[in-house]
Amino acid sequence: MSSIPILRIRGHLLVPVQPDLSDEVVNRLQNDVLEAIAGERDRSGGLLLDISGLQIVDTYVARVLADTASMAALMGRRTVLCGMRPEIAATLVQMGYLLEGVCTALDVDDGLDLLGLPR
Amino acid sequence: MTPGAHASSTERLQIEAEADVVVVRRRARELAIAQGFDAFAVAAITTAASELSRNVWCHGGGGHALLETVSDAGRVGLRLRFIDEGPGIADLELALRGGCSTGRSLGLGLSGSRRLVDAFHIETSPGEGTTIEVLKWARFPH
Amino acid sequence: MLPDTTPVTPDAHTLALRLRFFRIDPGVLARLAALRPFAERTMSDIIDRFYEHLLSQPETRDYLDDPALVERLKRKQAAYFLGMFRGEIDLAYVQGRMKVGAVHAKLAVATQWYVGACTHYLQLIHEHLHRERASDEERRASFEAIERIMHFDVSLAIDAYIARHHESRLRHQEAIRELSTPVIRVHDRVLLLPLVGTIDSARAQRVMESVLVRIGEEHARVLLLDIAGVTVVDTQVADYLLKTTSAVRLLGAKTILTGISPQVARTVVELGVDLTSLYTRNTLSDGLDLALSLLDKQIRTIDQERV
Ligand SMILES: Nc1ncnc2c1ncn2[C@@H]1O[C@H](COP(=O)(O)OP(=O)(O)OP(=O)(O)O)[C@@H](O)[C@H]1O
Ligand SMILES: [Mg+2]
Q1: C163, C10 in Cβ contact below 8 A?
Q2: Residue B131: in which H helix or E strand, if any?
Q3: Predicted structure pTM score
């Protein structure tokens, strides 16, 4: 099984989330991301979850993404969910899943703007 | 059965493991795209397929899905059925209202799926299982 | 019959009902099958004369200006003709007949020409039947059987016409909806959606979708949602507005609700709708100022003396 790529960019962690995840891979993603955060020496950067490749986000995936953001926040990392597709936003809202506590950006560029330079 | 809709041959997919949920939603997505669904309708039916097949797997103790394309007076659509012989849904009204889950989650799968489709039909009885049928029509593109 | 129902491709059950209504029973089907030698014998004369007739009429001639096309149609016509004498009507038959209707509808052959041509066809068959050596009783029964199946076929063709009409009506409705929701780019990364008229759930959904797509395309960070032209703002409409802003937020953009009149402000509060999580402004111009400040920009009057 392929491992989840986690990149470093301008002091932040960037996770490009792969399309059509199985529940198992989603769980692994959460794990790997939290491990990566814990392993970082420089703790000042944020976390960017790039979901522009995701074609579908059901309540399971949405929940894991939201949970991951909350957990990262507990570990001192601001998280930005970047690049959600229009049809996914519409679907989640129709289902009543608003991801209220999660910070969002149009794409990774905007996400980086939002996070600014690491303190 | 949805009255009036003319159905194609039916595909049957087992839902026995978590990985089957991915198979069902992937196939639903392929069929929706082949039927000319626009991106929003594709996302809607695929998400509903994912929610309902996951429910079959985790609440219904496994079962199967039936997928078929339908046509009716120039419209085309997709009809999906999710069938299990699990415990059934004890309080259907509550489960459909949303925001209620016997698990740890938000409980938006069932109520949310219902809002994503054009027709939603559910039959359930305690101890005998649950059958949920959804239908979504392709709309004309933007 | 309900006037506004659209015809449906029959399933086995409705096909059986329809056959019964046309009094096409196994006896009639057997008679048609027995007429097959007759059909094969007379086919080419009937079809030739049929096309002669079509070519002699100005209304139908226009569709048949190409001799190669006429030859092709004659071959198709032969298959169609023999189809009536198979002694069997199944769903494939029905679909085939509806397809013939759909093709004519697509070519915009008016129903009067279509049905009129069928009448002429029937006339030609009648003439040939008359020359057959058979008792009057036999001839009458044969003609009746052919008449029934032809009328049955025409009914299917008409259904296909109606289906096509229904479909084009749906398309028009879509087009009109589309026109009624323009999304305007008012500034770099700022879009304006002026909502006008009444909003129902289908329209709200469509509006939301086109706004989301445009935000993605234009890379917009702020959406000005102006509701000054909305006739009624009730809980339902407020709910649509909230949904749209939620979805816009999920994409990573912000919504500013503008054009909130005193009446709207009053109803929203009286209905107990909570809009406090939204950016709201009374006028569109105030909204634009806010949009620019969210982008760290502003509009200033240039100092006259320094110009
Ligand atoms: N096929 C099924 N068999 C038995 N019970 C079911 C079935 N589907 C749903 N349920 C019941 O209905 C409830 C609501 O289902 P719903 O999908 O809305 O929420 P959920 O699965 O608990 O959470 P999620 O939001 O993650 O989907 C479930 O908690 C479960 O008790
Ligand atoms: Mg569920």
Answers
A1: no
A2: strand B129-137
A3: 0.72
The tens digit of pLDDT for each residue in C161-175 reads 888 888 888 777 766
For chain A, what is the domain count? 1
Question: Is the residue at C118 inside a domain?
Answer: yes
Quick: pLDDT tens for C98-107.
998 888 888 8
Are C249 and A104 an interchain contact pair (Cβ–Cβ within 8 Å)? Answer: yes
Same domain, C272 and C296: yes
- Comparing alpha-carbon positions, the chain A residue that sits nearest to C218 is A106
Tell me what pLDDT residue C2 has. 33
Burial of C299 (0-12, 13-18, 19+ CB in 10 A): exposed
Chain C residues in contact with B73 by the CB 8 A cut-off are 6-9, 162-163, 166-167
Banded model confidence at residue A63, pLDDT cuts 50, 70, 90 = very high
pLDDT digits (tens, 9 = 90+) for C199-248: 888 888 889 999 999 999 999 999 999 999 888 888 888 889 999 999 99
> Closest-lying ligand to the alpha carbon of B56?
1
3-state class percentages of chain A: helix first, strand second, coil last, to nearest 5: 45, 15, 40
Whether residue C38 is found in the same domain as residue C90: yes
Residue with CA closest to ligand 1 atom 8 = B55
E-assigned strands of chain C? 184-187, 190-197, 222-230, 254-258, 279-280
Structural domain includes residue C3: no
Does C145 lie in the same domain as C29?
yes
Q: Record the tokens describing residue C264, joined without a space.
A: 């709207």
C53 C-beta neighbours (distance < 10 Å), count: 16
How many domains, in total, are found in chain B? Answer: 1
Range of the domain at C32: 12-178
> Is any ligand 1 atom within 6 A of the Cβ of residue B62?
no
| Domain termination site, one of C131, C154, C178 | C178
**CB-based contact C252 A94, cutoff 8 Å:** no
Set of chain C residues whose Cβ sits within 8 Å of the Cβ of B142: 178, 209-210, 213
B134 lines ligand 1 (CB under 6 A): no
- Which residues constitute the domain of residue A90? 7-114
- The answer to the question of residue A1 being in a domain is no
Domain boundary among C129, C162, C178: C178
The answer to whether position C5 is within a domain reads no
Contact C250 A93 (CB under 8 A): yes
